[in-house]
Design goal:
451 residues; alpha+beta; Rossmann fold; Dna Ligase, domain 1; D-amino Acid Aminotransferase, Chain A, domain 1; 3 domains; five-stranded parallel sheet; 22 strands; 34% helix; binds ligand MV4
C-alpha cells in the first residue's frame, strides 16, 4: 500500500479523497492555488504546497508544478479527482514515467475512451448496442448523406474529441446536414484540435443512465448498479439517483452485462462509468465511458456500502478486488448538487463570502462539502458548494429525507440551487420517476423560483 498520496485537485473531492486516505493510514499531500490558501483541503491534508496563481491553467492544470511537488514531497501516487487532469492521458503517462502511480486507468484506456467515435466503434464491434449511425468518423458529405438515408432525421453530429455534450448539433433536413457538417468539423478542429465528427440518429426523449464499474486489472470487473442522471440543465447534472426509477430488473441485468463487457474490451482498470441513453421502450445504447471517479459517486456508495475511493486506491496499489461479482444494493439514494448559482437568474454564478453555513444531518443524510461559515467561494473554479445525499429504504423515503435536509440547510451570503431542488422534489413528474434529459426544460418553471 502507498505511504503518501498527492491529491491533484481542490474542493469537495479533494476533501473526500483525504478522508479515505486517512482511514487507510496513508499520508496526504494537498496542492493549492493562491486563491485556495484558506481552503478546507489544505487544512485537512498532512502537508500542503502552493502550485501557482488562481487560474486553473497556472495551478491545478500546471503539470510541471504538480510533478515537481510530487517529487519534492516524495509521494508514491497521485489521485486526480474529477475534472482538471483526471482524463488527460498525457498526465497519466508522465506519472508512469516518473514512477508515481496515477490513481486511475492506464493512459491507453483514457486515450481510447477520449475518442468518442473510436470508442463507439470498439463497442459496436464487441456487440454492445450503439445508436444507429456512422461507423467511425465522417469522411465527406456524400458519406454523411448515405448515413442519413439509413438513420433518417433528426440526427445528431458529434465531435469525436467532444463528449459530455460539447460539440453536438442536431440536424433536421438534408440541407441542414450539408451546412452543419462543415461547420461542426471546423468547430471541432478549433475547440479540440481534432475536426473528426460522427453521426447518430437523434433520440428525442432519452434518459441518461450510467453504470459504475470497478476493474482490478487481474481479471475481475464488477458493476455496482446504475445511476439515473437525467435531471440536468445544459449538460450540467443537478440531481442524480440510484437505482434509476426507469430501470427494471431485466434492463438492469442487460445494462450491467454491457458495462462489464465494455470495460473488458477496453482493457479498463480502476473505477469507471459507462454512460447509456435509454429510450421509452427500454432500449439502451452505449454513449461514452468516463474514465474517472464522478461527482455523483456517493449515490452508488450509499446503496452499495462500498467506498469507491478506497477501491480506487487499492486497485492502483495492485490489490485484488474482494467484492462479489454483483454486489447487492439496498434502498434508494438521491444526490442534490448545491451550487453557488442563482436558479432564478438563469443559474448565474454567485461566488463570494459565505456568512452562515449550517449543513443538514440526521438519519440517512450525508453532506460532502469543502464549505464552512467564513469561507469565500472563489470565482475561478466550478460552482459546487455541497452535495447533499439522502438515503432511504425506498425512493419515497429518500425524497422525503432530501426535502427535510434541504429545508434545514442554511447558506447565507450567496445564492444557491436549493430552491431549484425543492421545486424538482415537489414536481409530480419527478415524483412518478418520469425524468428524461429535457425534464428541467419541460417541467420546471424557473421563473416561479424568483424570490
Ligand atoms: C444524444 C442525444 C440524443 N440522441 N445522442 C449529451 C451529452 C452526451 N453524452 C450525449 N448527449 C446526448 N446525445 C443521440 N443520438 C441526447 C443527448 C443529450 C443528453 C444526454 C445525456 C444527458 C443530458 C442530455 C441533454 C441533452 C442532450
Amino acid at each position: 500500500m502507498f505511504n503518501k498520496i498527492l491529491i491533484a485537485n481542490r474542493g469537495e473531492i479533494a476533501v473526500r479523497i483525504i478522508r479515505t486516505c486517512r482511514e487507510l493510514g496513508i499520508r496526504t499531500a494537498a496542492v493549492y492555488s493562491e486563491a485556495d490558501r484558506g481552503a478546507l483541503h489544505v487544512r485537512l491534508a498532512d502537508e500542503a504546497f502552493c502550485i501557482g496563481p488562481a487560474p486553473a491553467r497556472d495551478s491545478y492544470l500546471n503539470i510541471p508544478n504538480i510533478m515537481s511537488t510530487a517529487e519534492l514531497l516524495d509521494v508514491d501516487a497521485i489521485h486526480p479527482g474529477y475534472g482538471f487532469l483526471a482524463e488527460n492521458p498525457h498526465f497519466a503517462e508522465i506519472c508512469q514515467d516518473c514512477r508515481i502511480t496515477f490513481i486511475g486507468p492506464p493512459p491507453e484506456a483514457i486515450e481510447k475512451m477520449g475518442n468518442k467515435s473510436a470508442a463507439r466503434q470498439m463497442m459496436r464491434r464487441a456487440g454492445i448496442p450503439v445508436i444507429p449511425g456512422s461507423d467511425g468518423p465522417i469522411r465527406d458529405e456524400a458519406q454523411a448523406l448515405a448515413v442519413a438515408r439509413e438513420t433518417g432525421f433528426p440526427l445528431i453530429i458529434k465531435a469525436a474529441a467532444g463528449g459530455g455534450g460539447r460539440g453536438m448539433r442536431v440536424v433536421h433536413t438534408r440541407e441542414d446536414l450539408r451546412r452543419h457538417l462543415s461547420a461542426a468539423q471546423q468547430e471541432a478542429e478549433a475547440a479540440f484540435g481534432n475536426g473528426a465528427v460522427y453521426i447518430e440518429k437523434y433520440l428525442e426523449q432519452p434518459r441518461h443512465v450510467e453504470v459504475q464499474i470497478l476493474a482490478d486489472g487481474r481479471g475481475t470487473t464488477v458493476a455496482l448498479g446504475e445511476r439515473d442522471c437525467s435531471v440536468q440543465r445544459r449538460h450540467q447534472k443537478l440531481l442524480e439517483e440510484s437505482p434509476s426509477p426507469a430501470v427494471s430488473a431485466r434492463l438492469r441485468r442487460a445494462l450491467v452485462r454491457a458495462a462489464v463487457r465494455a470495460a473488458e474490451v477496453a482493457g479498463y482498470v480502476n473505477a469507471g462509468t459507462v454512460e447509456f441513453l435509454v429510450d421509452s421502450d427500454e432500449h439502451f445504447y452505449f454513449m461514452e465511458m468516463n474514465t474517472r471517479i464522478q461527482v455523483e459517486h456517493p449515490v452508488t456508495e450509499m446503496v452499495t456500502g462500498i467506498d469507491l475511493v478506497k477501491e480506487q486506491i487499492r486497485i492502483a496499489a495492485g490489490e485484488r478486488l474482494t467484492l462479489p461479482r454483483e454486489p447487492e444494493t439496498r434502498g434508494h439514494a438521491i444526490e442534490c448538487r448545491v451550487n453557488a448559482e442563482d436558479p432564478a437568474r438563469d443559474f448565474a454564478p454567485s461566488a463570494g463570502p459565505i456568512t452562515a453555513f449550517v449543513p443538514p444531518g440526521g438519519p440517512g443524510i450525508r453532506v460532502d462539502t469543502h464549505a464552512f461559515a467564513g469561507y469565500t467561494i472563489p470565482p475561478h473554479y466550478d460552482s459546487l458548494v455541497a452535495k447533499v445525499i439522502a438515503w432511504g429504504r425506498d425512493r419515497d423515503e429518500a425524497i422525503a429525507r432530501m426535502q427535510r435536509a434541504l429545508g434545514e440547510f442554511e447558506v447565507r451570503g450567496i445564492r444557491t440551487t436549493i430552491p431549484f431542488h425543492l421545486a424538482v422534489l415537489d414536481n409530480a413528474f419527478f415524483r412518478r420517476g418520469e425524468v428524461y434529459v429535457n425534464f428541467v426544460q419541460r417541467r420546471i418553471d424557473l421563473s416561479a423560483l424568483r424570490s
